[in-house]
Amino acid sequence: MDPFYYNTIEQPAVAEFKDRGSKFLAYSFPMLSIDACKKQLALLKKEHPKAVHHCLAYRIGIDGSTFRVSDDGEPSGSAGRPILGQIDSKQLTNIMVVVVRYFGGTLLGVPGLINAYKTATSLALQLSPIVQKPVEINYELNFDYHQMNEVMMIVKQYNCSVVEQVAQLFVELKIGVPKHRLEEVLNKIDDLQGVTYKTALIV
Q1: What are the start-end ranges of the H helices in 48-135?
Q2: Which of 110, 132, 154 is the last residue of a domain?
Q3: C-alpha R_g of the chain
Q4: 78 is in which domain, residue-wise?
Q5: pLDDT greater than 60 at residue 50
Q6: Alpha-carbon distances of 35 from 24, 38, 203, rounded to whole Å
Q7: Phi and psi (nearest 5°) for 174?
Q8: How confident is the model at residue 168 (pLDDT cuts 50, 70, 90)?
Q9: What is the Cβ-side half-sphere exposure of residue 12, based on CA atoms within 13 angstroms?
Q10: What is the mean pLDDT of the chain?
Q11: Are 16 and 97 in a shared domain?
Q12: Residue 145's domain is classified under what CATH number?
């Protein structure tokens, strides 16, 4: 794993795979939290109420340490693991893939299921452009409103992302600082009078 960059997808995609009458619809989504994954799964279950299985895998977090697989009633290890295997083969994180299955009347057996879930996921990931993003460390800055321009110049110069901004007389600005530029950014902020900062947890 590169300590400064990670791979993910930016937009959802859907692909279809058929085998002996069964239909497998694979949906890939960019995701930032377990909560978001749960909500998206609930939406898909509403959209496909007649489907027999909604199998999934997700991997969340810059280090990819948060993951889950679900076979949703399929034989153990025949659905969620093959889905996660495809995500991991492309070294992706902050992603969820749900494969919705409509049963076609013929049992596929475990090898057939593994192949179907793996293939459907692979097809969806082929349709999802992979992007490389910098690992960011979140900071909260506090400063006087008249210093906004100086602060925003640093934010733009070092490609920091603005997560949240509350502006009154004093500005509270939450930013994501690319890890590989962290020292430079903090040095620049240190040069500004009256700007304080601390690491921030962004939920």
Answers
A1: 80-89, 109-127
A2: 132
A3: 21
A4: 5-132
A5: yes
A6: 25, 5, 11
A7: -100, 125
A8: confident
A9: 12
A10: 95
A11: yes
A12: 3.30.70.1110
